[in-house]
Design brief:
single chain, alpha/beta, 3 helices, 34% helix
Length: 142
């Protein structure tokens, strides 16, 4: 007689990923970051001096000297809409006359980004020769 051999049931393999350990690791990392984040901000107290000075309010629009890509200079006054093309001598004379009327005249040099640096410096030399102290620089002017 043949004895009945008990057969074991083979477990079927799961093709699913077990995400429980990943969730546990994520929660531990979240707690670590929540605890350490406030400690990473370094700060210190600074006693700033107090002042009663007010901010400068300049209601006067600046004069704009434009340098085009070909090196041509132009001057745009606050009351005009379009800039006037002129050479360096005429620009220096015009700026000198404006500077003699207003010592706080502000001039901005606007240059296209393709203009050679040499031409921008030449324009600033013309402005400096006109005895203007407040000069700013703006790039990519249109």
């Amino acid at each position: 007689m043949t004895a009945a051999i008990p057969r074991r049931k083979r477990r079927k393999l799961k093709s699913e990923i077990n995400v429980v350990p990943y969730i546990d690791v994520m929660l531990v990392l979240l707690i670590i970051f929540m605890v350490t984040a406030p400690l990473l901000t370094l700060s210190f107290e600074v006693d700033l001096p107090s002042s009663t000075a007010k901010a400068l309010e300049s209601k006067q629009d600046p004069v704009i000297v434009s340098v085009r890509a070909d090196g041509q200079l132009s001057l745009k006054l606050p009351e005009t809409k379009e800039p006037q093309a002129m050479d360096s001598g005429a620009l220096q004379a015009q700026l000198g006359a404006l500077a003699s009327q207003d010592k706080n005249l502000r001039v901005i040099v606007a240059a296209d980004k393709t203009v050679a640096y040499e031409k921008v410096v030449a324009a600033m030399d013309v402005i400096k020769a006109a005895k203007i102290e407040k000069v700013g620089l703006a790039t990519d002017a249109r």
